[in-house]
Design goal:
Radius of gyration: 21 Å
Oligomer: single chain
Order of helices and strands: HHHHHH
Number of helices: 6
Helix content: over 70%
Structural class: mainly alpha
Number of strands: 0
Low-confidence stretches: 3-26
Strand content: under 5%
């Protein structure tokens, strides 16, 4: 009887340990995809960088990690900005900002508004650019 209780306790503790590992793997997967994306930016391999950033977005969305999803969208916006694909960058930054707006104000949110301002400057839409710079300034000040 003692052996049966011991085996039962041993197996149940093993089952709980696996659940903790799986949760940690979810967080690590998002960070890992973003790290791979950043590495590929450094090696000028933008196709793979976009692919890994999109995987980070998909995984963050799946596990309902809004901040990581917003960060990954901002990363994609930055990639498109470097490639001078300003319309795509604007779209990604808007997705990022809309996600950040569900959270408390942060420097990352302000940075997205600043980057939106730069995108609109490149498109010579100075009024919208100025509005985004003002939003960034207001968030930085808070």
């Amino acid at each position: 009887m003692k052996h049966l209780v011991f085996i039962l306790l041993f197996l149940s503790s093993f089952a709980f340990a696996q659940k903790k590992e799986k949760k940690a793997a979810k967080v690590d997967s998002i960070a890992y995809y973003i790290e791979l994306s950043n590495f590929n930016i450094k090696t000028n391999n933008y196709k793979f960088s976009l692919n890994f950033a999109q995987k980070a977005i998909d995984y963050a969305h799946e596990v309902k990690d809004v901040k990581s999803e917003a960060n990954a969208n901002a990363l994609i916006g930055g990639i498109y900005f470097e490639l001078k694909k300003f319309d795509d960058a604007i779209e990604s930054y808007y997705k990022s900002v809309s996600l950040y707006n569900t959270l408390k104000p942060s420097s990352q949110q302000a940075y997205c508004y600043y980057q939106l301002g730069l995108c609109f400057m490149e498109k010579e839409n100075y009024l919208v650019a100025d509005n985004n710079f003002d939003k960034a300034k207001t968030i930085f000040q808070t």
